[in-house]
Known about the structure:
Blueprint: H1 3-17, H2 20-40, H3 46-66, H4 72-85, H5 95-109, H6 119-130, H7 136-146
Helix pairs in contact: 1-2, 2-3, 2-4, 3-4, 5-6, 5-7, 6-7
Amino acid sequence: xxxxxxxxxxxxxxxxxxxxxxxxxxxxxxxxxxxxxxxxxxxxxxxxxxxxxxxxxxxxxxxxxxxxxxxxxxxxxxxxxxxxxxxxxxxxxxxxxxxxxxxxxxxxxxxxxxxxxxxxxxxxxxxxxxxxxxxxxxxxxxxxxxxx
Length: 148
């Protein structure tokens, strides 16, 4: 079952249950998935579906970060939206798993003591391994902590 079908089925369940916030979030996600498929002019691969979901999560988090603390209604709406969207996102890697992959990448590249000048070469090999599985900011900060 594709994510589009899964989201559509869950949206119908939310409508029947009277969960307005969940229905609106799923409707927005469904529209984003369909728009991506229309732009591509073919069905989305599972990886592309995940990228659309992660993009929606990222945009919602950015909205949440930029919202002033006195705008509680927007903060609550973003929090509810994130809770729904994260149900459809894959489980992200934690820092320990990222460090493990960075170590494997360093071994693969033959770099024993990584320096700041090696960061570009490391990231070039590392990011395709973790794309869609780990937060890019966390990968970057983890790598920076290992650089000397």
